[in-house]
Amino acid sequence: MKKSLAFRTILNLMLVLLFVTSAGVGLAAPGPPGPPGPPKKSAELNVLNNPTVISPDVLSSGIVMTYTLIIENARSSPLVARDATFELPFNGDQKFISFSSANTRWTLIEPVTDTVRVKLGDVDIGERGTVTIKATFATNYEKPIFRQTIYLVWLNEFDYRRRGTNLTASVNLPTVGPITPTDPTTPTDPTKPTTPTATGPFAKVADPGVPNNNSQWYFPATGHTLHGEFLNYWLTRSTVTTPQAGLLTLGYPTSEEYLDNGRVIQYFERAVLEFWPENPSDYRVLLRSLGREVGQVEKPVTPGTPSTSDGSVFYSETGHWLDGRFVSTWQALGGLRQFGFPIGEAVIENNKLIQYTERNRFELDLSRPNQLVLLGLLGNESARAKGYL
Question: Is the bond leading into 306 cis (omega within 30 degrees of zero)?
Answer without folding.
Answer: yes
